[in-house]
Here is the input.
Amino acid sequence: MSDTLQLWLLFFAVGLGTFLIRLSFIQLHGSAEALIARSKHILMLLPPAILAALCIPAIIFTRPLTQYQVDYFQLAAALVAILIAKFSRSVFWPVMGGMLCLWLLRFISG
Here is the structure.
């Protein structure tokens, strides 16, 4: 078999395994509605936690992780994105606003 076919079969097998693990978890509890109702509060906190875990290291550590150096333009853009997120309740507009702010600050500074 070619390496590409083996890789696609591996992706399929891992995806199927993940699906079956999650399906069995839901099926063991009998009803998905009861499980979702119990964990709804926790699930609402998951997207902001994931977004913070992805964004904060990139904002704080602008050089390799051994050096701590703050880029004030990135901090300003992050604050703009946070403010937009607070009022828009969207994912698209904070990303666009933060990136536009970062590009604008870097363009102005030369």
About this structure: The longest helix spans residues 32-60.
